[in-house]
Design goal:
There is one protein chain. The chain is built from five helices and 22 strands. The protein has 407 residues and is an alpha+beta fold. The strands form four sheets. It has a six-stranded antiparallel β-barrel. The chain has a four-stranded antiparallel sheet with strand order 4-11-9-6, with no helix packed on it. Strand 18 and strand 19 form a beta hairpin. The longest helix is centred in the N-terminal third of the chain and has 51 residues. It is rod-shaped and about 185 Å long.
């Protein structure tokens, strides 16, 4: 082997040795992993849900009777005052029923009552005549001038006349003013007048017509909603159905920021006013009502709104990105803490929980390095990559917090 060849061999061996040494060193150092360094920072937890605007006073207008619509006076968006006519029903049948009831009352007063009174007077006269006849027959029978059968006929005629008087007296009393017959006739008149008054549907308060479900000529029945009216003085709320998993962090008085889908660059403030006492079993949600502090001019009923409710806040908190947590059990989880480029599994106690960040109460402190990967082993050497490094503060600022529940 010549001297030149030996130099080439030595050079190649040297390069191979250096490469193997570098590879072995890198292997000894461990894989490159993303990592976070913990810092104290403000931490805010939110619940974000989509709902709609509803009026605090909203009435559904319907008819109390069955009828046909003669005229509709309002439509969506119209402003109405208390007492304004909204809908008028046809009155032909009801007017005829009222006239019939009134005619019955006139017949009672002008015809039936005088007739019964005259019959009573006639019956009383017949009783007087029957008594005289009985007395005369008694005298004749005592003188043996008439047979006993004639006396008995006179007695029977008296009994019949007395019965007719009693019947006429009862009918006359029933037809007297304020008694049953007149009261029944007056009740029919009152019922007909009441039904007739129900053919005119009026606004119970001032407000705005939201919806209408009726036109002239429609047949309407009790229970059918014809119009919806929102009170002009009752105010507005935001109704949001929230996932029941977030019920534990919701409380009345919590502040919220609302943004309407139709006006994405404008926002308004609201406060949690009340929380429904029950959970919707079909959707797994609980209804939350938010009171709007200052209602913007553009807000209207049924406007879709996204509400961001602040459910928790820490001015200074040690928070861990959720991708660094594993083996979560309730308020406890594990993280890989990097100590001297070696990872150690550490159990931590959790506080405020969210999709992006979670507060750590115990187990870590400011300045600790946390590996983002969960596929590591105890005591493994790693190289926190500066290119993938991000502080907990940076991770928190990149997203809004929405509470999540650890199982």
């Amino acid at each position: 082997m010549t001297g030149r060849t030996k130099k080439w061999v030595v050079s190649i061996m040297t390069v191979l040795l250096l490469g193997a040494s570098f590879t072995a060193y890198r292997y000894w150092q461990g894989p490159v992993v993303s990592a976070y360094v913990l810092v104290e920072q403000p931490l805010v937890q939110y619940v974000v849900a989509t709902g709609r605007i509803v009026s605090t006073s909203r009435a559904q207008i319907g008819s109390e009777i069955t009828g046909v619509v003669a005229q509709r006076y309002v439509r969506e968006g119209d402003q109405v005052a208390a007492g304004d006519i909204l809908i008028r029903l046809k009155t032909d049948a009801l007017t005829a029923r009222l006239e019939e009831a009134q005619a019955s009352m006139r017949q009672l007063k002008e015809l039936r009552r005088p007739q019964v009174q005259a019959r009573l007077t006639q019956a009383e006269a017949q009783v007087a005549q029957a008594r005289r006849e009985v007395k005369r027959r008694q005298t004749l029978l005592a003188a043996h001038a008439t047979p006993r059968e004639e006396k008995e006929k006179a007695d029977q005629a008296l009994v019949t006349a007395v019965a007719e008087v009693e019947q006429a007296r009862l009918e006359a009393e029933a037809l007297e003013a304020g008694q049953s017959e007149e009261a029944l006739a007056q009740a029919r008149i009152d019922a007909a007048q009441a039904d007739l008054s129900k053919t005119v549907l009026r606004a119970g308060f001032s407000g705005t017509v939201l919806t209408r479900h009726v036109e002239a000529g429609d047949l309407v029945q009790p229970g059918k909603v014809l119009l919806e009216i929102a009170s002009g003085t009752g105010g507005m709320e935001v109704l949001v159905p929230v996932d029941e998993r977030n019920l534990g962090v919701l409380k009345t008085g919590q502040a919220a920021i609302c943004i309407a889908d139709a006006y994405p660059f404008q926002q308004f403030s609201a406060v949690v006013q009340r929380i429904a006492p029950t959970v919707d079993p079909q959707r797994g949600t609980v209804d939350v009502w938010l009171t709007i502090r200052d209602v913007p001019d553009y807000v209207r009923d049924d406007l879709t709104v996204t509400a961001t409710i602040e459910t928790g806040r820490r001015d200074k908190a040690v928070a861990v990105p959720n991708d660094a947590l594993f083996d979560q059990q309730g308020l406890s989880a594990s993280v890989w803490r990097v100590q001297g480029r070696v990872v150690r599994e550490t159990r931590v106690t959790l506080g405020l929980q969210g999709v992006a960040m979670t507060e750590v109460h115990e187990g870590l402190q400011v300045g600790d390095w946390i590996a983002a990967s969960s596929s590591l082993t105890e005591g493994q050497r790693v190289r926190p990559s500066p290119s993938h490094f991000a502080s907990a503060q940076q991770a928190f600022g990149a997203s809004r917090e929405v509470p999540s529940k650890f199982e």
